[in-house]
Design a protein that fits this description.
The protein is mainly α. It has a domain of 58 residues. It has three helices and no strands.
């Protein structure tokens, strides 16, 4: 099988991966994903003042939704982890996972401003 452009691309003439070429590693971001992320971050940086003005007009619940919606574009998703350990080294450590929807916040009665 020959390369599609004469170079060592790891693909044959039809664009398929050649034998021994596994392709993109699992978890690696595509070029398109990186471009979209960069475009969103650049947009946010260039429009910080306008975004802040609009954000200030939102109700608290809407503010949280807005942040949750845009955060994946600017930062990797992380799992919240809370650990407690009050013993000596060598004792059993227990890890408990809680669904974030089950956590009651101190101001959870606040339904937002009118």
């Amino acid at each position: 099988m020959s390369d599609n452009n004469g170079g060592n691309t790891g693909r044959d003439g039809s664009g398929k991966f050649t034998q021994g070429n596994p392709g993109k590693p699992k978890g690696a971001a595509s070029n398109a994903s990186a471009k979209v992320k960069n475009a969103v971050v650049e947009f946010l940086e260039l429009n910080t003042e306008n975004i802040q003005e609009s954000f200030d007009k939102l109700k608290p619940v809407e503010k949280l939704k807005f942040i949750a919606d845009i955060l994946p574009y600017a930062a990797p998703k992380l799992s919240a982890v809370h650990t407690e350990h009050a013993g000596e080294i060598g004792q059993r450590i227990e890890i408990t996972w809680h669904d974030p929807r089950d956590i009651k916040l101190s101001n959870s009665d606040d339904k937002g401003s009118s």
